[in-house]
Design goal:
mainly alpha, 434 Repressor (Amino-terminal Domain), 2 domains, 0% strand
Length: 127
């Protein structure tokens, strides 16, 4: 029994040391990435980029051109192109724009809202 406790104690020490080293490496890498890339790594930019790329993939699946997407969603061609490249910021996505985009590509607006980290709007309907 004493030998089992000793082995278990060793396992915990190794696991904790590994965890500490892993966390240290993660912090160092994250700090370097933030130094190098700065604001481009913010969660808002990533969410907005994800939505734009998702809309672009949906449009391509439906064989829509950028101009067709722009027309269907009530956007300029340059805004539609920026959107599918993931260049729009999270604040650029208004509720009305999300509604038009969802309609243009045949998805629920609530999915796009959730991808942006916003309430889906369905909570109010269920209350």
């Amino acid at each position: 029994m004493t030998q089992n406790r000793g082995i278990e104690h060793l396992r915990r020490l190794v696991r904790d040391e590994f965890k500490n080293q892993n966390e240290h490496i993660h912090r160092v890498v994250k700090a370097e990435l933030l130094k190098k890339h700065g604001a481009r790594m913010s969660p808002q930019t990533n969410r907005a980029r994800m939505v734009g790329m998702f809309i672009g993939a949906c449009a391509r699946r439906q064989s829509m051109t950028v101009d067709q997407l722009a027309s269907a969603a009530g956007l300029t061609s340059s805004n539609a192109a920026a959107l599918i490249k993931g260049e729009l910021k999270q604040d650029d996505y208004t509720d009305e724009m999300l509604e038009r985009l969802a309609s243009a590509v045949g998805y629920e607006e609530s999915i796009l809202r959730l991808m942006l980290g916003r309430p889906s709007g369905e909570e109010e309907a269920m209350a």
